[in-house]
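Per-record layout

source: Trypanosoma cruzi marinkellei
name: Trans-sialidase, putative
length: 214
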Amino acid sequence: PQRPNMSRHLFYSAVLLLLLVVVMSCVTGEAVVDEVTSPDSGTLMKILFNWRDLKDAETVGLLRAPSLVEMDGEVFALAEAQCTKDTNVFTGIALELLKLTDKQSKELAATEMKTQVLVECPSDKRNCASKNADQAASASEVKVHVSRPTTVVQGSEIYILLGNYSFPVTDPAADVFQWGFLLAMGTVRNNEDSTKMIHWNDTYVLPWISFEEQ
């Protein structure tokens, strides 16, 4: 029964390794900003991403696709988080730093993990998800669907594949350009309380054109 799941995980890992090669060879950008070439006009579309913590009235109900990742001598549990606010359902990434203790082992508790949500901001609202964003900017954020996180560690950086991302294209004949892979990069840093946590930095969309040109 576990073989299909293992095969799927190995497939996702292979895809992530391929994406990592593409990112390191042809993608550059500043934090939370990605530029995607529009196939019909040849121009660059700026996509602004930002990671934020859960807000009031947002809760985590279920965890999916859990995995372990080791960085800088620390082991983290990571999973897709199914979040809700009122009747709205969305996803995020849940993290927990694991410690070796003499206590009895227990299951991951969704409410005890640090959960962050990836949002897309309008082009004129770079910090729409930040703590200091005004109400209008926060209201304009669009939550990005993330699913089945798959990780690869490269030195002091972690790369995480977050599923598919679709973006608008005006040319109906250019279906291959209407979606790509969503990829984020993170590093381990200390929180304000001196505990270590993975902080997500750059987030990229790699359209299929990136692979067509390789």
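summary: The CA atoms of residues 4 and 26 lie 33 Å apart. The two ends are 36 Å apart (CA to CA).
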